[in-house]
Amino acid sequence: MIAELIAETGPLWHERHQAVLTARPRSRAVGAGAKHKLVFADRLLATLIHLRHGATHDVLACWFGVDRSTITRAIGEVRPLLAMRGCTVAPDVRLRTLAEVVDHLGARGQTGIMDGTEIRVRRPAAGRKDREKFISGKNKQNAVKSMVVTDADGRLPFCSPAEPTSCADITHARQLGLVKLLSDGPHSSRRIRVEHGIDHLKNWRALARHHGRREHMTDTIQAIAGLLSHQQTATLATDCHV
After folding, report:
1. Cβ atoms of residues 121 and 142 within 8 Å
2. Do 100 and 205 share a domain, yes or no?
3. Which of the residues 105, 183, 187, 224 has the least number of beta carbons within 10 Å of its own beta carbon?
4. Residue 222 belongs to what domain range?
């Protein structure tokens, strides 16, 4: 899987990096000067360890022999690339929007399970005007919420962007356009129903409790969803060939 991720996201990272270099005024040619202390494969690996095991930037910096700022920058560059991949539901099929999920489930006559999951975050700074939005009415903790869709077997085809926990599940679902999607197409309300089916997602330490910036939560959730769905699909394919 690492090799696949490198082959897929490496060119995207290089393209973005080159665009940044050529966009700013320079006294030397692009490519001149000091080289990266952390090659892309190591940047990807550091990001995966951070997401899966919750390793801090300081610890990763020690492991890879670089400054903490290098790790922070690497994760900040790689995490959005992982989030963009979408969720893998078949070796050649990825879903990135709720509309694609509804169409996919409906076309196959499959049942979808939708539920909201909360991830604890750091308390917003005192004086922030929207501070109360992040307090969970259920757990009385500071958190953000994502709407998660799984199929009947618990495989993951979609995670929504993160929202403050003051947003009710039904309101979040409406904002995502779920009601319209179900009413506009040949789908019944039984295609997606609210139940629990997100245990595997919370096994990733970055979602057990998030200590970073809340603005990175959407990329974090969707990156993990994409990685988990890819793993689930690969495992299913292997089992089918045994």
Report:
1. yes
2. yes
3. 183
4. 87-241
